[in-house]
Design goal:
Radius of gyration: 43 Å
Largest sheet: 6 strands, mixed
Number of helices: 13
Helix content: 10-25%
Oligomer: single chain
């Protein structure tokens, strides 16, 4: 703000009035390093003119004084780099007797600009060091290339002295700035609701509208803040990878998939993947909770470094709390592994893991749709899809991930169609001399040791591991006997799963024809509507009602109805807590604990429908 002085106060101007007359600067601008304020002698150049309550005297170089009678701001155009820039001069004094216009250097510097005199040139820079005004030396005076912006004023009305109020002052005469079709580009930008400048120029050049003229077509350098608040978008994220590791384990990408809608048969809802950036070899492990990420991360690093003989150098992940926990930071720092974290809310920066996450889920969904299996088999399809990815070439690698990661050519002799019919051999100790020696199952992939096949017996929903299997993929039967293969390790590191045990195969009931028949028909899914057909009318939940009740708590949590059994368990625990029927005490030393177990029961209605799960 300008602080105006009383009549007895003065402001000094050390340029003579004689020079102003001699140089004919009535309509020009002279830059002066001795003037304290910017001064103008034209009343019509001001907008929103404000008279001074106390007049200020200004002393010129010849000791003569002239009055300053008002102040306001000026809309001007300044020339810089061949372009006219719209600007506003604030706090300019109106001095009718000055016979010229003075641009104060001290006033410009106080506003944050920088004034540079070099030879016969004068330049003014803004706070961003951008040139905003130029001038030159003429008649030993620096004249700046600037002029007042064009606008039109007109008298709205004229009143005779008899009709005017005696108390009104002549300074209250009403003038206005007329709005007409010729306006600078910035003004049209505001008139048209912040339309982009390219479209505004296109409207004028192509004659799309009438009554529109752009007086200044220069696009402003400063951004429009209302446009940023209303229309700013994210910057373009390039899809081209900026980094690619040259060596195995030079960079490992990891990500945790969001929870799946249906848990697996073992109660898993998440899975974590690790992708080597050089070979794109992938390892997948299931999780019950995200808190298991640290344990699986340590297990993968130990396994990968042991298998390849290399060291993990860089780990790339998102910034989720599962990866930036304190114990994970300490572990990576101890192993001297650099941790690269992506920008928040920008999964594109972790594109390798995110893209493969989508690819793997798409492949899993296609396999389940092809085999008509329920969605609860997603984990088995996911593990088999990961195994097939490591055996297949892609655009990212020149050969196969397994060949580059392990150095061995993968063997696909044992590959079969996912969920095809298989016949597993029943060991002699599990059957008598008159029982069948084969059990019909479906193929779900390989076990973790890769020396046995991972199968499932559909009637009992039991998972079986067997090495003596006959496959039926729709053509001739083929017997495959697996041999140990230590050169082809597992692609899944699951430190939370229990070690596999030798399955006990129970032969089916002896029928009149003991020889199994070959069939090419696909297996009927568990949720097939044909299971609900009965002679006594529709029974919607018959398939679930006839399902065996779990004998233990672990089997209940691993069943398809794990959520319902868990709700029954929590309801019973809440009831006991309210009744206060038990106390938790330390285990007495030297005393024997009486064992107990949970009993699970399905309550059915008269029509066979399930009414309640009880624990």
């Amino acid at each position: 703000m300008v602080r105006f002085l009383a009549d007895e106060d003065i402001k000094h101007v050390y340029k003579t009035k004689a020079k102003l007359h001699k140089s004919n600067l009535r309509h020009g601008w002279l830059i002066d390093s001795s003037a304290l304020w910017t001064m103008c002698s034209h009343h019509t150049w001001f907008s929103n003119f404000t008279p001074l309550s106390q007049h200020t005297k200004v002393i010129l170089g010849d000791n003569s004084t002239i009055p300053a009678v008002g102040s306001s701001h000026l809309n001007i155009k300044m020339l810089a780099n061949g372009k006219w820039i719209d600007s506003i001069l604030q706090d300019v004094l109106y001095m009718p007797d000055l016979h010229g216009n003075l641009l104060s250097v001290s006033h410009l510097v106080w506003c944050g600009t920088k004034v540079l005199f070099s030879g016969e040139a004068c330049q003014v820079f803004d706070c961003r060091k951008s040139l905003i005004l130029e001038g030159g030396l003429r008649n030993n005076l620096y004249i700046m290339n600037m002029h007042i912006a064009d606008y039109v004023t007109a008298n709205v009305t004229s009143l005779s002295p008899q009709l005017m109020d005696a108390d009104q002052s002549i300074t209250r005469a009403l003038t206005t700035q007329l709005t007409f079709s010729s306006a600078p580009l910035t003004l049209w930008h505001h008139r048209l609701g912040h339309l982009n400048f390219r479209s505004i120029k296109h409207m004028v050049d192509e004659g799309l509208v009438t009554g529109m003229t752009v007086s200044n077509r220069n696009t402003p350098l400063d951004p429009c803040e209302p446009c940023l608040e209303g229309k700013q978008t994210r910057d373009i994220i390039h899809k081209v990878a900026t980094m690619c590791a040259e060596h195995i384990l030079g960079c490992v990408h990891t990500d945790v998939c969001s929870p799946l809608p249906i848990p697996s048969h073992h109660g898993y809802r998440y899975f974590i993947m690790f992708i080597d950036d050089s070979s794109h070899f992938t390892s997948v492990s299931p999780l019950h909770e995200k808190s298991e990420v640290g344990k699986l991360l340590k297990a993968f690093i130990s396994w990968a470094e042991l298998e390849t003989g290399s060291k993990v150098k860089i780990l790339c992940s998102d910034g989720g709390g599962k990866y930036i926990a304190g114990h994970i930071k300490d572990y990576l720092k101890q192993r001297r592994i650099k941790h690269k974290v992506t920008t928040p809310n920008t999964p594109q920066h972790n594109g390798v893991a995110e893209c493969f996450n989508r690819t793997l889920l798409n492949r899993t969904q296609a396999m389940l749709a092809d085999t008509k299996l329920p969605k609860s088999y997603w984990l088995e399809a996911l593990n088999y899809a990961t195994h097939l990815h490591n055996l297949s070439p892609s655009r990212s690698v020149s050969s196969t991930p397994t060949l580059q990661y392990m150095g061995n050519i993968p063997d696909v002799l044992r590959l079969c169609t996912f969920s095809c019919i298989t016949h597993a051999h029943i060991p002699e100790k599990s059957c008598d001399k008159l029982s069948a020696h084969s059990l019909s199952c479906i193929f779900l992939g390989f076990s973790q040791q890769r020396t046995t096949f991972h199968l499932m017996h559909r009637p009992t929903c039991k998972f079986i591991e067997s090495r003596d299997v006959v496959f039926d993929e729709g053509g001739g039967q083929e017997r495959i006997i697996l041999e140990p293969n230590i050169d082809n390790p597992s692609n899944s590191i699951d430190s939370t799963a229990d070690p596999p045990t030798s399955p006990t195969l129970t032969p089916p009931t002896m029928s009149s024809n003991p020889c199994p028949k070959c069939t090419t028909r696909p297996p009927i899914p568990d949720d097939d509507p044909r299971y609900n057909v009965s002679f006594y009318g529709p029974r919607a939940n018959l398939a679930n009602a006839e399902a065996p009740e779990p004998k233990t708590y672990d089997k209940a949590m691993a069943s398809l109805d794990a959520i319902k059994w868990l709700a029954a368990y929590e309801d019973k625990m809440q009831t006991w807590k309210q009744l206060d029927v038990y106390d938790v005490i330390p285990w007495p030393k030297g005393r024997k604990i009486v064992g107990s177990k949970w009993v699970f029961h399905v309550k059915q209605g008269p029509d066979g429908t399930i009414q309640k799960y009880k624990a």
